[in-house]
Amino acid sequence: MKKVLAFLAMSFAVAGNAHACQFSWYHYGEDSTRALIAQEIGSHVSDEYCARFNAKHQLFIQSTAYVLNNVVIGHSIVGIRPRGSKVHPAETFTMVSYDTAGRTSGDAQRLAVRATVRALDNLMSELKTYKVSE
């Protein structure tokens, strides 16, 4: 019985990892915002990205959080570039999120995370026609 349970547990572990990929991404922005993005990003990277781009490319993410008098804003730009490259992708997706009830930098950072995952969702929906600058 123990052998059967061990085999089943191992089978599920292999099947669970078969569709996952460890992707590379680089973030330009505050380290604290990057840490928040890291908690959310995984579920927004598609299997299609992993299959088509992951081996030789990385996600590019640039985020900014703004605190103004009556509004907080999160801004993000995402794209794909060759792994290890420092170039800004030619084709990017940009998103802005705002809240008139927010007042703190933490509120603005959460909006930057929201903008990032929404921009990533848009990028993932356009992978069939996306062209990476080499």
Topology of helices and strands:
Elements: H1 2-18, E1 25-28, H2 31-40, H3 47-52, E2 57-67, E3 72-82, E4 92-99, H4 105-125
Parallel strand pairs: 1-2
Antiparallel strand pairs: 2-3, 3-4
Helix pairs in contact: 2-4
Which properties best describe this structure?
alpha+beta, about 130 residues, 4 strands, disordered N terminus, 4-stranded mixed beta sheet
What this model shows, in words?
Helix 2 (31-40) crosses helix 4 (105-125). The model is unreliable at 1-19 (pLDDT under 50). Strands 1-2-3-4 form a 4-stranded mixed beta sheet. Helix content is 40%, strand content 25%. It has helices at residues 2-18, 31-40, 47-52, 105-125; strands at residues 25-28, 57-67, 72-82, 92-99. The relative contact order is 0.18. The chain is elongated. It is an alpha+beta fold.
Mean pLDDT: 87
Structural class label = alpha+beta
Count the E strands: 4
Shape: elongated
Strand content is 25-35%
In the sheet with the most strands, the strands line up as 1-2-3-4
Summarize the structure.
This protein has 134 residues and is α+β, with helices and mostly antiparallel strands. The protein has helices spanning 2-18, 31-40, 47-52, 105-125, and strands at 25-28, 57-67, 72-82, 92-99.
